Amino acid sequence: MDLQAAPPRKIIHVDMDAFYASVEQRDDPSLRGRPVVVAWRGARSVVCAASYEARKFGVRSAMPAVRAERLCPQAVFVPPDFARYKAVSRQVREIMLAHTDLVEPLSLDEAYLDVTVPRSALPSATAVAEAIRARIRRDTGLTASAGVAPNKFLAKIASDWNKPDGLFVIRPRQVERFLTPLPVGRIPGVGRVMRGKLEALGIATVGDLRGMPLEELQRRFGSFGAALYRRARGIDERPVEPDQPVQSVSSEDTFAQDLPLDALAPAIRQLAANTWQAARKTDRVARTVVLKLKTAQFRILTRSHTPEQPPASAGELAELAVALRDRVALPAQTRYRLVGVGLSGFREPEERVPQGELFDPGPPMGASVKR
């Protein structure tokens, strides 16, 4: 039988520009052209987003709000309104779905699209990306940047190339020439620590990395070494997955003041209720309970437990999470600024797990779902 090779993939990565801050500037004309920081004020708050005007001062997402205020005293702080951001995100998603069913959301503000066989009659992936960006601007009043490439890894790098409000295309014949001079830090997953390890080996660019044998990278970095080997050659076989199964669900909260370990039970129980409520939105069953703690010195600890039977109620989840405190061996005087409760190890139910009581704590606070 004569089998034809599948056509090369055409992948688009769409990334909204300074999304939360841009929504705020769109809806409040007085904020346009000003450095906007989306965050609650206070010693415990972190930056959710920063406008490009604020980024010029070094303000970045996930930065402590107090540091952002020091870097940019004239910044306008706006409390986040996630309901509004989610509504705009749904609007953008509908624009993408007009061109392909293969849309993989990564967050509210970015997604991958596979347009190898687009729904629309546009002649190329570049034309699809241009049409999506134009309609986002027309329908939402916001801008988006896009990268077009043969795979997800390259498309994500490309979408960041001409930000904001830009488009960059990497064609298959251009991959090696494009990657060779790039700093290794441009590879997703290569953060400050990994970059330092690679530079200690004389690897500063992707071209340098390409010269390292697979066996050597695996010996030093395990499975991530194999991923580095593939990325250096522009290889990424991951498909765009529009319906990814839930992998983990979690909720966390930062305290107004640091607390000792034995004072955390009420917060753990509330967060367990939030996590349970979020987990009920999936048909999959979680096996592992996770407790996350952050000390006053910003040290992060996680403790996990996989019981013989998955937790069957919010109360059972709370008891398991509270019990995980006993596995924290730090000095008694240690204080904690953040606590989180999560569920992971989701699997398809072989048998229906009894749900126990139907606990409805109200809208989850700080809950997140990873797919």
UniProtKB/TrEMBL annotation:
Belongs to the DNA polymerase type-Y family. Pfam families: IMS, IMS_C, IMS_HHH_1. The record marks 20 as: Substrate discrimination. Mg(2+) binds at residues 15, 109. It catalyses: DNA(n) + a 2'-deoxyribonucleoside 5'-triphosphate = DNA(n+1) + diphosphate. InterPro entries: DNA/RNA_pol_sf (IPR043502), DNA_pol_Y-fam_lit_finger_sf (IPR036775), DNA_pol_Y-fam_little_finger (IPR017961), DNA_polymerase-Y (IPR050116), DNApol_IV (IPR022880), IMS_HHH_1 (IPR053848), Rev_trsase/Diguanyl_cyclase (IPR043128), UmuC (IPR001126). It is found in: Cytoplasm. Binds 2 magnesium ions per subunit. PANTHER family: DNA POLYMERASE KAPPA (PTHR11076:SF33), DNA REPAIR POLYMERASE UMUC / TRANSFERASE FAMILY MEMBER (PTHR11076). One of its GO terms (cellular component) is cytosol. Poorly processive, error-prone DNA polymerase involved in untargeted mutagenesis. Copies undamaged DNA at stalled replication forks, which arise in vivo from mismatched or misaligned primer ends. These misaligned primers can be extended by PolIV. Exhibits no 3'-5' exonuclease (proofreading) activity. May be involved in translesional synthesis, in conjunction with the beta clamp from PolIII. The active site is at residue 110. Monomer. It comes from Pseudoxanthomonas broegbernensis. Residues 11-191 form the UmuC domain. GO terms for molecular function: damaged DNA binding; DNA-directed DNA polymerase activity; magnesium ion binding. Its EC number is 2.7.7.7. Keywords: Cytoplasm, DNA damage, DNA repair, DNA replication, DNA-binding, DNA-directed DNA polymerase, Magnesium, Metal-binding, Mutator protein, Nucleotidyltransferase, Transferase. One of its GO terms (biological process) is SOS response. This is DNA polymerase IV. Residues 350-371 are annotated as: Disordered. Its cofactor is Mg(2+).
